[in-house]
Amino acid sequence: MSFKVDAVITWVDGDDPRHRAKREKYGDTKSLNRDDIAGNTRYRSIGEILYCIASLNRYAPWLNKIYIVTDEQDPQAMDFIAKHFPEGHIPMEIVDHKVIFRGYEEHLPTFNSISIESMTWRIPGLAEHYIEFNDDLILAAPTRPEDFFPEEGKVVCYGNKRPSLFVRLSRMLKYRADGVKKVSFKESMINAADVCGNRHSFIMLYHTPKALLRSTYERFFDEHPDLLLRNITHRFRHATQYNPEEVLYILLSHEGRCVMRNANRELFYFMAKQDMGYIRRKLNRFTAESGKKFGCFNSLDLAPKEGQELVTEWIERRIKLR
């Protein structure tokens, strides 16, 4: 590989009293009680980011640097990583929201993952080729740069192209909470397809790491400053926002620079439940799928304490911390 690849992890600790106070100051009661917009589970952290960082060091040691994007916080990861990787680890840097929102500070504080992901390309010194992670993602097996960038200037998208007619029809009938349309991951993809002029199809994305190109974002937002503002003016998730990663993949697909791969072949997905039987079945299935490279553990805080312990023990074994 002749080019550098960085990793970007977006993270906040929602249990931090200062962060909670900011959410309550800027959010209304209805939004703060809706998990699709600003419910506590969207921000709660029980240490997942430490496993995310450790998994990158274990299974992607070829990365150049890890940037942790956060809001006046520090995950205190250095001691944990140094303990498990005493012979050296990938360099890390914490980047505050104020840095990536420079020139747009009036839109801070923000509690909106879509807004933040629309700005991560502005990290000073960020490599042209970078991979974006949410803190609930891990690498679960050895990876190569080619798993994300088949060659310089091209990306791998773990998703598939789908017709959008059914989604467009179904969203017209979608249940409205308190008279407001529910905010969803798929809705943001359809909105992105509209932004790109794709009326008949979209790319279905999954909860995988996202391979991105800084210059593509820079060019797009330089040409469409109004679309940047459309995404970052909402402090909390909003139904009109579009998925910026979807936009990037559609643009690169038009240029023949996006390679589609089947997400289900590489991803195991865990959605926390109170049912211990579900948790055990999921972990047994994941264990059998030893070759899958990506794992997502969504809203682990919602699992019972016993379930959280089972999952974290499994993760530690998978990334060889025990």
How is the topology of this model organized?
Elements: E1 5-10, H1 17-26, H2 29-32, H3 48-59, E2 65-70, H4 78-84, E3 92-96, H5 97-100, H6 113-117, E4 129-134, E5 137-139, E6 155-163, H7 165-172, E7 176-177, E8 180-181, H8 185-195, E9 201-205, E10 210-213, H9 214-223, H10 225-232, H11 244-254, E11 258-261, E12 267-271, H12 276-288, E13 294-298, H13 305-318
Helix pairs in contact: 8-11, 9-10, 12-13
Description:
The structure is a single chain. This protein has 322 residues and is an alpha/beta fold. It has one domain (5-150, 208-238, 266-318). 36% of the residues lie in helices and 19% in strands. The protein contains 13 helices and 13 strands. The protein has helices at 17-26, 29-32, 48-59, 78-84, 97-100, 113-117, 165-172, 185-195, 214-223, 225-232, 244-254, 276-288, 305-318, and strands at 5-10, 65-70, 92-96, 129-134, 137-139, 155-163, 176-177, 180-181, 201-205, 210-213, 258-261, 267-271, 294-298. It has a 5-stranded mixed sheet. Strand 7 (176-177) and strand 8 form a beta hairpin. The two termini are 31 Å apart.
